[in-house]
């Protein structure tokens, strides 16, 4: 068991060390020469090279391909060392900085590893879907990879995160059922070390013990803290508030916690509601605004290996690269052409992150084009220069990066968004729900804004006007849509247009954007501009989710809130850590303000400890094998899976079923394609209901066949398939 962990880490460190040594000369302006982002860059390097070689139909995704890529990277490294020996000989001087970052990685990796060891089963929620993606890529070994739940067709989803995990599985030789559970601690460890590095790279000068503590605080706020739902759980188990107050909070009859285990709730999955806070109910108790507000720890607790979770360290790395472009150009008043290699690398990484999780392109494009605009303001040149030396170089690098992944963006992926692509939100977030979700960060944001506004002597009306535009234009656009199409949006009322939540979000966006401009125009303080860029980008995402949603198959803003809120949480974790730093070092911040903020941060950890204690039992079998439950409880199915993995079978037929069920588990656990798996998920990915219904009819016909001669002749079509007949098929 622990041999697998050793082999996994050995493979990771081999790739990340190669990546670090190859790219360190490009990141010598970082205190650790870029070690903090070497793991995500290394994974992208191996994943993108293997993906491209398969796209141009060279080789097959296997051990030989990955080993060949590593071999040529080693040759490249020897060449770089030969050409830059003096630089590489100085790397020993930064070993202390490398060890600091690595300690953060190991701490978070180890904690999550223990969690997965006690909660290892690849069963429930969407784990079978995630596992199917990894197995499909490994089994098919092609680009695009086949879809085990839609036989004969390729995966129609953003799958590059799964591709990277498949590459690790192949090079390490570890079973996919173990790789699944090792990948989650790996993503957590990378997320912790990259968010720590983001803080160290851009918000410190000396990298003192205090800065290490603040950087570690950013990792904790990102990965262990929760929203303020824990207050409602505590109020409930302590009978602190009357029932009518809980009913008002929820909007309908509040489902009170029944079982309590000393210091925490003990109801089955009581913690689930922490990710389902925002909703509005009508008089009949029907939800009108069902949304999802997962935060990173909730995702870790669930154990799903979803794209939004896999993308976390890669998204943070992209933010670091974009900030690096900004920093390298800021002090020299140069244009983007002068740092073209770094800009190209950043643009490439932006497209990589989009391949891992489409939704993350939102924050990256906002951030990228905001820093372009800010650098142009800093250069104090005309609009022609903005276009020719800032926008055009950026667009060219994005286009070149897009061409590398053209096979995915134009030919493999299918849009899950339907026309009209963007719709206005009718029911906005109630303030009490907004406070519950974002209350952990709001006090620190207000503190930072207030602390820096005190230094603003005279308001610049021109800059203030520009600061209002990103809020006013979308707001007017939303209002016009709802007025013009008033028959479609007949239920809207003015209070839903300008709610308390929207006012607070808009105020934060306007103020933070103004402070960005102020720090560029007056103080020239790049650290402060970084800070308010993160505040603006995070709350602007929340603002967009409050006013618009992408019109996917669900027809509501559930997914938009889910994905945009998750991205905002990542940036705000650094903002929260910086507020802690301000409270420690500044004598101007009253301790009366500091104590409540620190208490909120500490209380936000209650949810994590309580939920882990209720979900995980120390008496569970400790293993990293996600198929352990099959070995012990469903041995016949486990034996079938093992037989198929060892055989030359490349097609099976098993019963399709609903999502979040045990149907289509054999195709999921082997990667061998069946005719149809989870039908609702395939409909969500492909949008083509007719082809799914055809496959349903075909599978139904196969399993309802009798011994009639013509029917047996029909089965002859599937003579190369292995037909599974088990409990689910008999249903």
Describe this entry's structure for a reader.
The protein is mainly α. It folds into four domains: 1-150 and 161-225 and 598-621, no CATH class; 319-402, no CATH class; 415-589, no CATH class; 634-730, no CATH class. The chain is 65% helix and 3% strand. It is built from 34 helices and six strands. The strands form three sheets. Strands 1-2 form a two-stranded antiparallel sheet. Strands 3-4 form a two-stranded antiparallel ribbon. It has a two-stranded parallel ribbon with strand order 5-6. Helix 14 (312-330) packs parallel to helix 16, helix 21 (461-484) packs antiparallel against helix 23 (500-523) and helix 23 packs antiparallel against helix 24 (526-547).
Report strand order across the widest sheet: 1-2
| Alpha-carbon distance between the two ends | 37 Å
User: What is the number of beta strands?
Assistant: 6
Q: Residue-averaged pLDDT, rounded?
A: 90
Gross morphology is globular
Fraction of residues in helix: 55-70%
Give a quick account of the main beta sheet: strands, pairing sense, barrel closure: 2 strands, antiparallel
SS summary, helix count: 34
Radius of gyration: 26 Å
Number of domains: 4
Q: Helix- and strand-based class? A: mainly alpha
Q: Strand-residue fraction? A: under 5%
Keywords:
731 residues; mainly alpha; two-stranded antiparallel ribbon; 65% helix; 3% strand; globular
Blueprint of the fold:
Blueprint: H1 2-23, H2 38-55, H3 63-83, H4 85-89, H5 95-118, H6 127-140, H7 160-172, H8 176-203, H9 209-223, H10 229-237, H11 243-250, E1 260-261, E2 264-265, H12 296-302, H13 307-310, H14 312-330, H15 340-356, H16 361-379, H17 383-404, H18 406-412, E3 417-424, H19 431-438, H20 442-453, H21 461-484, H22 494-497, H23 500-523, H24 526-547, E4 548-552, H25 558-585, H26 591-603, H27 606-615, H28 628-633, H29 635-646, E5 652-653, H30 665-670, H31 679-686, H32 689-703, H33 709-715, E6 722-723, H34 727-730
Parallel strand pairs: 5-6
Antiparallel strand pairs: 1-2, 3-4
Helix pairs in contact: 1-2, 1-3, 1-7, 2-7, 5-8, 6-7, 7-8, 8-9, 8-14, 9-25, 14-15, 14-16, 15-17, 16-17, 16-24, 20-23, 20-25, 21-23, 23-24, 24-25
């Amino acid at each position: 068991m622990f041999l697998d962990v050793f082999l996994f880490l050995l493979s990771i460190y081999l790739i990340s060390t190669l990546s670090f040594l190859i790219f360190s000369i490009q990141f010598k302006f970082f205190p650790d020469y870029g070690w903090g982002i070497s793991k995500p860059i290394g994974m992208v390097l191996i994943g993108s090279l293997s993906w491209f070689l398969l796209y141009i139909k060279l080789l097959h995704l296997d051990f030989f391909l990955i080993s060949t890529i590593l071999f040529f990277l080693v040759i490249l490294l020897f060449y770089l060392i030969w050409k830059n020996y003096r630089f590489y000989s100085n790397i020993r001087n930064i070993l202390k900085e490398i060890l600091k970052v690595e300690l953060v990685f190991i701490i978070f990796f180890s904690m999550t590893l223990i969690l997965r060891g006690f909660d290892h089963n690849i069963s429930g929620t969407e784990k079978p879907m995630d596992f199917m993606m990894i197995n499909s890529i490994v089994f098919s070994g092609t680009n695009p990879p086949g879809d085990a739940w839609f036989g004969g067709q390729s995966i129609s989803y953003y799958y590059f995160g799964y591709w990277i995990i498949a590459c690790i599985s192949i090079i390490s030789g570890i079973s996919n059922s173990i790789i699944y559970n090792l990948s989650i601690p790996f993503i957590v460890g990378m997320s912790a070390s990259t968010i720590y590095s983001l803080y160290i790279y851009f918000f410190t000068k000396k990298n003192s013990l205090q800065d290490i503590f603040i950087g570690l605080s950013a990792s904790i706020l990102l990965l262990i803290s929760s929203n303020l739902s824990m207050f409602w759980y505590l109020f409930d188990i302590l009978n602190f508030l009357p029932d009518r107050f809980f009913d008002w909070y929820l909007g309908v009859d509040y489902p009170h916690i029944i079982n309590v285990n000393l210091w925490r709730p003990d109801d089955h999955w009581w913690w689930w509601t922490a990710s389902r806070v925002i909703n509005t109910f009508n008089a009949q108790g029907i939800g009108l605004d069902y949304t999802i507000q997962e935060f990173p720890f909730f995702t870790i607790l669930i154990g799903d290996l979803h794209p939004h979770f896999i993308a976390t360290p890669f998204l943070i790395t992209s933010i670091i690269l974009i900030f690096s472009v900004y920093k390298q150009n800021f002090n020299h008043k140069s244009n983007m052409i002068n740092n073209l290699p770094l800009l190209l690398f950043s643009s490439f990484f932006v497209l990589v992150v989009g391949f891992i999780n489409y939704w993350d392109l939102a924050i990256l494009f906002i951030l990228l084009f905001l820093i372009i605009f800010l650098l142009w303001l800093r250069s104090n040149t005309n609009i022609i220069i903005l276009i020719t030396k800032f926008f055009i170089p950026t667009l060219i690098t994005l286009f070149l990066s897009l061409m590398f992944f053209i096979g995915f963006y134009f030919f493999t992926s299918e849009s899950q968004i339907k026309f009209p692509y963007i719709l206005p939100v009718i029911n906005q977030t109630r303030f009490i729900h907004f406070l519950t979700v974002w209350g952990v960060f709001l006090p620190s944001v207000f503190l930072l804004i207030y602390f820096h506004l005190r230094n603003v002597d005279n308001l610049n009306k021109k800059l203030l006007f520009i600061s209002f535009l990103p809020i006013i234009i979308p707001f007017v656009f939303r209002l016009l849509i709802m007025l013009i199409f008033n028959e479609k949006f007949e239920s809207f009322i003015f209070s839903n247009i300008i709610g308390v939540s929207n006012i607070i979000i808009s105020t934060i966006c306007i103020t933070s954007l103004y402070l960005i401009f102020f720090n560029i125009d007056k103080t020239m303080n790049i650290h402060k501009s970084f800070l308010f860029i993160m505040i603006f980008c995070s709350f602007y995402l929340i603002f967009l989710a409050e006013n618009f949603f992408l019109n996917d198959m669900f027809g509501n803003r559930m997914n938009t809130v889910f994905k945009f809120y998750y991205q905002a949480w990542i940036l705000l974790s650094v903002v929260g850590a910086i507020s802690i730093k301000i409270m420690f070092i500044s004598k101007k911040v009253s301790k009366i303000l500091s104590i409540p903020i620190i208490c909120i941060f500490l209380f936000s950890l209650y949810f994590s400890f309580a939920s882990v204690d209720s979900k995980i039992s120390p008496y569970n079998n400790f293993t990293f094998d996600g198929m352990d439950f099959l070995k012990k409880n469903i041995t016949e199915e486990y034996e079938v899976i093992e037989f198929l993995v060892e055989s030359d079978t490349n097609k099976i037929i098993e019963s399709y079923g609903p999502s979040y069920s045990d149907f289509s588990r054999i195709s999921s656990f082997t990667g061998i394609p069946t005719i149809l798996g989870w039908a609702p998920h395939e409909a969500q990915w492909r949008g083509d209901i007719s082809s799914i219904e055809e496959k349903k009819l075909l599978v139904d016909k196969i399993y309802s066949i009798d011994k009639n001669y013509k029917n047996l002749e029909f089965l002859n079509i599937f003579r190369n398939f292995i037909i599974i007949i088990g409990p689910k098929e008999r249903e």
